[in-house]
Request: fold
Amino acid sequence: MTKVRSEELLAQLKELTPRVTPQRRVILETICDRGGHLSAEDIVAEVTRRLPGVSPSTVYRNLQALENVGLISHVHMGHGVAQYQAADHGRHHHLVCGICGHTQQIDERTTSNLQRSLLEAHGFEADFDHFAIYGTCAECARTGRANSEG
Amino acid sequence: MTKVRSEELLAQLKELTPRVTPQRRVILETICDRGGHLSAEDIVAEVTRRLPGVSPSTVYRNLQALENVGLISHVHMGHGVAQYQAADHGRHHHLVCGICGHTQQIDERTTSNLQRSLLEAHGFEADFDHFAIYGTCAECARTGRANSEG
DNA sequence: TCCTTATTGCGAATGAGTCGCAATAGCATT
DNA sequence: AATGCTATTGCGACTCATTCGCAATAAGGA
Reply:
């Protein structure tokens, strides 16, 4: 992480949370450093590396706290645990393959027609940010692999 | 459940599973009786009422077994546990509200344009049967309720 | 430096299943 | 109807990912 980025985050933390602890700061930095998505377990592991002795429950509590103030968010990628990401990670939706687990990002506009239809027909505001679109990726479809997940 | 429906199910069980036990039969009947969706816990409760003494693990094992042979299926409705349904429950997708938890069924055709786009652009076969479409229902959007779920 | 109270670490508890294993019971055969 | 094979059951212990209660600690304002 660059020094300037780190200072930005620190400023945001000061503004948005009552107290800035090393644990909180490192947890946020860990998530912001990694471009992609991280599970809570991944975050516990990496934070422990950077700050030996942190308690897993502290990590879990801070994931909630940081999400409450809007600095991070999480997305459910099919089966399995949620993935966390920085709030400013760029706008996109996810496709997740139920067979190989591979995920890819797609442009938000891809879903806008469906979202419009659902809004018009049912008044329903679909949210593809919080749950990925589940299915079978090109590679698994081509090779005819079967889904053995629950 | 009608007598004829019950006999149909029994015939299917005989054909598709090595042994027909009372537990297995009652579990399948319970799911087929209820038009809608049931959580595993709901099924344990109802099966226990019909057949006192069944073990929860027997119910869980049979849910897997019945799903493996294609008699039932389950769908993930946002947060929370999966819902089971008879395999012949009629083809439709689900909208689930993340705020009030309300669900509604929609015609499969509603999503076909998006599915076509995803297939053409990414070779991805989206499956809206296994994961519901998550968002905010008309009523919650109207009254501006906020999402407090994880 | 002191004080208030938010935050931490610890370990126990939770929810929703899953697993190992001995006992039971379908059902094909005699 | 009795027998034998083995699928299935019930039980209880276990897992996984997370949450909770609580006493000790430590931010950060006065």
Summary: Residues 17-19, 21, 23-24, 53-58, 61-62, 65 of chain A lie near DNA strand C (CB under 10 Å from a C1').
